[in-house]
Every structure is written in structure tokens, then in C-alpha cells.
Amino acid sequence: MEGSWFHKNRFPFFLVLSLLLQGKGSTFIINCSGFGQHGVYPTVLDSAFDRKAFRPVTNFSIPTLVNISFTMSAILDVDEQLQLLSSFLWLEMVWDNSFIRWNPEECEGITKISVATKNLWLPDIFIVEFMDIDKTPKDLTAYVSNEGRIRYKKPMKVTSICNLDIFYFPFDQQNCTLTFSSFLYTVENMLLGMEKEVWEIADTSRDIVQTHGEWELLGINKATPKMSLGTSLYDQIMFYVAIRRRPRLYIINLLVPSGFLIAIDALSFYLPAESGNRVPFKITLLLGYKVFLLMMNDLLPTSGTPLISVYFALCLSLMVVSLLETIFITYLLHLATTQPPPMPRWLHSLLLYWANPRTCCPTAPQKINKGIGLPPAHLPGVKEPVELVRKVSGPREAELNGCPESTRAQQEDEAQRQHLVNLWVQFSHTMDTLLFRLYLLFMATSVVTVIVLWNI
Question: Of the candidates 85, 89, 215, 75, which has an alpha carbon nearest to the alpha carbon of residue 157?
């Protein structure tokens, strides 16, 4: 006849009950007869090892205090696309085991021994942001003092999720969190504390960090929130890890070459527009800049829109606008030397106002012999109007010299053509000057922005 479930399983049940009753309100003192000259006998701590399945307290109404500390020895990688931070930590946990006690004076002065962690109760502390499999080596050891204090250290490669803001790349600073909590025990059973002060953790981590790569550790702060899941409340310690990117690699490989190309493109305004050399030169620079962006694309973040991408887009747009302006100026000068079109009155007034803002704009073009009253341009990108007028009026002057009976109307027509050529040439000077100043303003703003972001 088969027995009931209780009779078949009564031996494990009474074993657990006896262990619990032994642990309630009693003090466990280990017999020192097992401590000899050759160390501790394997059977000395069997009474404590048998209780590793239970939280090591003599009163289960008292929560176990677990003090936590860690040292960040390396920042391995920051994945902007997956929003992950990879680091290497040395985690330290300290708690009291009421099942282990001995008197050092009776045990030949032994105050600390090392014990395999497989024989001890371990707190189920985990990192909430952990996004990988825990690859911590098994069969590690822990130090146990004569007062029952257990100190357990383990190395961890932590791949944690982090909300990365890459807008200021490569001058960005990130603030990632590492939250330590218990998976099973609520605040009634386990409380978390600090083994070291947070400033000690930060200073030690900065001193022993072994990587001098892309990231540097700025500091570590902490908070102690409580996590509520339904009716259960869990204790937590949240560490804020502030890191900063070292931008020197990106400045040398990205910003400096881009700045050189923009500066060369600005200097190309000193090439004469009517010579036909400026347009091919700007096309070559534009193609070279595009190839540069394709080659350096691997250094840029693959997600988001950082400020440096906006800078590259503005550089490319400025070069395209400069090329279109050069093509327009070249066409305008060619048209002015063949058959100059009349200049609209609003454009003539705007041109005169640009030359001298204090002068009131006339309602009609001025007389030919007085000129347009514009100062000479500062850029030598376009030849003087007299040179272009000679190309137009040279054949007609020869015709006039050969015909003494030429009328005054023909002379006025020729002077009108000269006046139009003068206006359009001055207009091309003005456009080049405006765009050149826009280049200078953009380059100065870029340099100041880089200096400010680098020194923040």
C-alpha cells in the first residue's frame, strides 16, 4: 500500500524544519578543533554549508543587509546604433552570515579564510540595465571572517542599455545608469547599502581605468530609489556613470580636412570669373568633398542626426551655391560683353544702396558721364569694367574713327552700352563679395563653435 505524499516526503520536510528551528534565536560557534597547522579541515564548516539554501539569519524577520561597491576598470565600447554601453566591472558584495562564527584566540589566530562560493548563500544581485548573458566565471571564492562577514568579489563584463544623445558628437557626454537590485528578495528580506562612498568608487575607477581610447570617465553619482512591482517593493541602488568622448580623432580626421576644403573654396573667388578657370576648380573641389564624406562615413554615428552631420550638409550646400553663383556670373559676364540687357530699376537701386547705404536711391539711372557712384570691388575675381568695355567698343571705335560724319546718336548708344556693362560687372563684383563674406562668417562661426564645445 502506497503511503501518502506527506509520509513519502516527510524526511526532507523535517530536515528543513529542523534547520529553521536551529537557526531561530541561536548563535552558531564553530568548533576550533578543526583548525590546525595545515589549515581548516573540510568538515568543520559542514554545518554552515548545509544551510546555504536559506538566507543566513537567525531571525527571518530581520532583513539581510548587502553592501555593494564596484570599480569600473575599462570602458570597452559605446554602440550608438544599439544604444549599448560595454564596460568591465569588479563587483564587490559584503554581507553577514550568522551561521559562521569562531573565536580566533581559540583557533590559532585565524581571522579569515577563503571558501568556495558554491558552498555559501549568495545574494541574487543583478543589474537592471544588463542586456547580455552573465559570463562571470563559476566556482569563485569568497573571504569569510571570524565574525561571519563574507566579502565576495567577481569580475563582470557588463553590456548595459543606455539612452545615448549624440547631437553634440564628437563633443558629446553621456550619462548612463547601472541599477543594482535583488531579483527575488523584497525590502522585508534584503536591504542594499554602500560598502564605499560614491566618491571613492569614482576616484578609484578613474585611477585604474586601463583603456585610453575613445571614452574617458568623468564621474559617478548615486541614488537610492525603490522599485514597486504590484504589491512588492524592492530596494535599489542606481549609479549614474558620466563619460565623455575624446574628440581629437574626429577633429583631425573630419573637421580639419573639411575646414581646409572650405577655405580653398573661399579662396577660389580670387580667380577671374570670365577666364573660365573658376568653374572647373569649384567642380573639382565639390567632387573631392563628396569623396571625402564617403570615405569618412564610417567614423560618423549610424543613427540620429548629430551636429557634425549638419555642419557637413551646410558645407556641401555652400559649395553648391558657390558653384551655381560662379556659373551665373560667368554667363552674365559673357552676356555683358556681347549684348548687355538693361538692368531693372530695383536692382540698380539695390546695387547703389549696397555701395553706399546712406545715399538715397535714385528714381532713375544717373547720367552716363557721372558713372554709378560705386566704389571699386575688393575681390579681383572679375576684371575691371574698362577692360570688358574695350572688348565691346573696340570695333565700333574703329568704325567711328573711319567715319568722321558719325552722328551724336551713335556715340550715345555706345556710351549706353558701356554704362550697362559697367553696371553688370559691378553687380558680379557685389555677388562675389557677399558670398565671400558668407564663407568667412561660416568659417569663423564653425571655429568658435568647435572651441566652445571642446572646452565645455
Answer: 89
Angstrom CA distances, 138 to 73, 112, 334, 444, stand at 21, 22, 82, 58
With b for 16 or more beta-carbon neighbours within 10 A and e for fewer, the 178-201 pattern comes to bbbbbeebbbebbbbeeebebeeb
Q: Where are the beta strands (DSSP E) in 80-189?
A: 84-96, 112-116, 125-127, 141-145, 149-161, 173-182
- Name the nearest CA neighbour of 87 among 223, 231, 239: 239
Element (H, E) at 103: none
- Give the whole-angstrom CA distance, residue 293 versus residue 297: 6
What is the rounded CA–CA span in Å between residue 151 and residue 112? 10
For 140-169, b where at least 16 C-beta lie within 10 A, e where not — what string? eebebbbebebbbbbebebbbebebebeeb
Using the structure block, give the residue that is written with the C-alpha cell 552674365.
332
Q: Residue 273 and residue 212: Cα distance in Å, rounded?
A: 50
Percent of the chain with pLDDT over 90: 40
Pairing outcome for strands 64-79 and 141-145: unpaired
pLDDT, averaged across the chain? 78
Section 100-105 average pLDDT = 82
pTM, full prediction: 0.72
At position 75, the amino acid (one-letter code) is: I
Q: Name the maximum alpha-carbon separation found in the chain.
A: 147
At 330, is the pLDDT very low, low, confident or very high (cuts 50, 70, 90)?
confident
Please name the residues in contact with 418: beta carbons below 8 A apart, sequence gap of 6 or more.
Answer: 368, 385, 389, 392, 393
In this structure, what C-alpha cell is assigned to residue 139? Answer: 566556482
pLDDT bracket for residue 234 (50, 70, 90): very high
